[in-house]
Amino acid sequence: MQSNHLFLEEPIRMASILEPSKARFFAAMTKIVGTLGPKSQSIETLSACLEAGMSVARFDFSWGDAAYHQVTLNNLKMAVKSTKKLCAVMLDTVGPELQVVNTVETSISLKQDDTVILTPFQGQVATPELLPINFDGLAKAVKVGDTIFVGKYLFTGSEITSVWLEVKSVDKDDVACTVKNTATLTGALFTLHACQVRIEMPTLSDIDKEVISTWGAQNKIDFLSLSFTRHAEDVREARDFLSKLGDLNQTQIFAKIENIEGLTHFDEILQEADGIIFSRGDLGIDIGPEKVFLFQKESLNKCNMAGKPAVVTRVVDSMTDNLRPTRAEATDVANAVLDGSDAILLGAETFRGLYPVETISTVGKICAEAEKVFNQEMYFKKTVRFVREPMTHLESISSSAVRAAIKVKASVIICFTSTGKAARLIAKYRPTMPILSVVIPRLKTNQLHWSFSGAFEARQSLVVRGLFPMLADPRHPAESHTVTNESVLKVALDHGKASGVIKSRDRVVICQKLGDDSVVKIIELED
């Protein structure tokens, strides 16, 4: 493991800490993924979330049905239209998630040192002595001394709504456990997590496939968050399934690393996936909490070098019920940015939290402050060393665009692209200025009808740090000549000026393709 993961630029002027943060059109270069639920379903709240900086909306199908999520998505579309803020859609699968079934939804109080039995659900009523679960193989998977956590919202170590169990004995299909802390479980379903235990259930369940092929296909989801990814084969199977669902063959797959098995096979998973989500809630249970930061730093570094987006979860849990994060949480957000995270994923904070908009705004402000002291020069040199020579043509052009932008102190990099690949490569080098990705649609056909590409590519940029997309007029191809290029460039510059990113006499670096040649050029705007 390399030692220079914390890219902190020095020296920091202490006086700058006392300066108030300045408002910007882009809340931060680091993106924010918000999980939508009861507290963030209204058009008014969703509009405020978009204005505050949310760029990806996550729909968690471990809670709620397709009809409920469709109402939320329809409201989101109206919010996008009213705010004129793009937002991508992420579907989060249930995966091999174990659950306690509480059909009568009565509160279940468990006392420390008491014994509780976990047993396969067959219509039993959940009680403090008996917890029915949705899996009949737990007794075969665990052994005496194993740790099991049960709770409505994942165990954090402080919630009184989650319980820590230790396996006491196994008898046929039943698992007897000793309760390690007093807690009260409420609601219809509680998540159950068995630490470092292999659960023989498919990563993509039949229920997941049904949701993806109906709700997902109908809404042309941009991202699939593949819960409990354990092997590269999980990603390959999911991609094969998506390839048979029309437009979903363009959906990007983000592998969600949640347990020791996914951690063990991380390198091969990274190779197959389009991005990675570090689910620190479950992962912090499966490995010791003192090891989580080590995994975060090393794996984020690997994602950065591979040029694949990395998303960090569970950063401001306390804002679910409070208007301000703890000092440790604020520092954690900043460190995630300095470690190289592309996006911060908010779960309960926006799903059921009392302050979804304020949480997004606060996290955005912390990210923006951390970005100011991110040592881009050190990071750039490190990335170039990792890529080595000879670079590919596109990698060379992308790194050159960033180097030029830094040297001339450009206010923005404008990249013309059809697939989004060139823009993502530029973002890989973490320039200090925003990258305006001008996505040029391409005409395509399935032999039955014609359509334009581009919408997927534009929205999928919304999870990449520093990348801000706009969809160009399809009459202007990405590989065109002077007249049309100048026309598209004017639209991009006008958009930048309207956004407050570009001002008179600013320098702008442009990366585009002219015929068969890729070109990086610098322009200086007139008054």
Automatic annotation (TrEMBL):
Indicate the family of this protein.
Answer: Belongs to the pyruvate kinase family.
Which InterPro entries does this UniProt record tie to the protein? Pyr_Knase, Pyrv/PenolPyrv_kinase-like_dom, Pyrv_kinase-like_dom_sf, Pyrv_Knase-like_insert_dom_sf, Pyrv_Knase_brl, Pyrv_Knase_C, Pyrv_Knase_C_sf, Pyrv_Knase_insert_dom_sf
Query: Catalytic activity annotated for this protein?
Result: pyruvate + ATP = phosphoenolpyruvate + ADP + H(+)
Which top class of enzyme applies to this chain? transferase
Q: Name one Pfam family in it.
A: PK_C
Pathway(s) the chain acts in: Carbohydrate degradation; glycolysis; pyruvate from D-glyceraldehyde 3-phosphate: step 5/5
| Cofactor (UniProt) | K(+)
EC number in record: 2.7.1.40
| UniProtKB keywords | ATP-binding, Glycolysis, Kinase, Magnesium, Metal-binding, Nucleotide-binding, Pyruvate, Transferase
Which is one GO molecular function term here? pyruvate kinase activity
Q: Does the keyword Metal-binding apply?
A: yes
Q: Which part of the chain is the Pyruvate kinase C-terminal domain? A: 395-513
| Lineage top rank: taxon | Eukaryota
Q: Which residues form the Pyruvate kinase barrel domain?
A: 29-360
Q: What is this protein called?
A: Pyruvate kinase
Known SUPFAM superfamilies for this protein?
A: Phosphoenolpyruvate/pyruvate domain, PK beta-barrel domain-like, PK C-terminal domain-like
